Amino acid sequence: MALRVAFLVACAWPVAEAGTGATNRSLAQSNASVGGCGNLGCSSCGRCFNAGSRGGATCRGPGGSTGYNCPAEASSVNGILGAYACMDWTFGSSALRGAEADFRGQAGQDVYFGVGTYGTSSDPQRGLGACYRMKVEGVDKDIIAQSINTGWDVHGNQFDLQIGAGGTGAFNQCAGGSGSMFAGGKGSWGCTYGGVDTMAQCRQLPSAPQRSQPMRQAGDSLVELCEYSFRKNVRLSGADRPAGACKYNPTILDLSRVMLALRGQKCESENPGASLSYCLTRMMDCRKPSGAFKDNLRPELMAPGKKVLQTCTSDGYTRIDVSCGCSGCMC
């Protein structure tokens, strides 16, 4: 059985050999430190599920939880008490645009990169780690995106793309709490599902997380990432349209990983009671995704060293060491 190239974030297309490719090198440069099973005391007891993974900072969650068992919620952004989604996964980030340029130089193909959730029940891994190439209505280039999450609300043939302030959903780690990545309340973040609905509203967002230096050093801004998604037409506004805010989404015209003939189908998210099939929807909840939980993954389907998605600290850029999930064999 062939291994899928899991959790490179983003992907190469055609899929590159595990551990190679410009995208892997590009994002690896943001790691905070060199880590591994030995650093967490897991090597001697044979409990290093994700041996060979990239290094990172050590999570020190309650009760000794660390690595891929780092909690999905934290009481504070001080210290490394919880795991979060990474902000340089966001559509249009400096890291992804750099990876797109590398891919264009190596493969001669001009595309956008991204991550999110693909709705499927037919895949034994529920899409986790798989890459999908999409043609999207109104978007000038194909999007190659990796599915790193699952969700009960993501329908078949739908892709939920992480974009700037795309909607925090039911599990919000972005704003409004003591352990939220960004300071302040939820008021400026728009709809729970869909997020900010006009480009003008992007300017009301905080520009960077509470621990802001890594995002600023990367050359990113939440405001600019939000505006970029409007300019590239991966989100549509409901302003002055019948269904109202956060009801409109672009149609996925073709999705080539699963060889589906989607031409002729239409996203109808603006219609009451309609499913989100064939829609490119949007999200950004800042929360540890499904692909970062060991029990969601089948190791025989994943590439060595990339079996678990590598999450970030509360700054959204510093990677956490996810080689194992215990300290000193106390799993």
Automatic annotation (TrEMBL):
Pfam families: Glyco_hydro_45. Residues 1-18 form the signal peptide. InterPro entries: GH45_Enzymes (IPR052288), Glyco_hydro_45 (IPR000334), RlpA-like_sf (IPR036908). Residues 107-209 form the Glycosyl hydrolases family 45 active site domain. One of its GO terms (biological process) is cellulose catabolic process. GO terms for molecular function: cellulase activity. It is an enzyme of class 3 (hydrolase). It comes from the Eukaryota. It catalyses: Endohydrolysis of (1->4)-beta-D-glucosidic linkages in cellulose, lichenin and cereal beta-D-glucans. Its EC number is 3.2.1.4. Keywords: Carbohydrate metabolism, Cellulose degradation, Glycosidase, Hydrolase, Polysaccharide degradation, Signal. Belongs to the glycosyl hydrolase 45 (cellulase K) family. PANTHER family: ENDOGLUCANASE 1. This is cellulase.
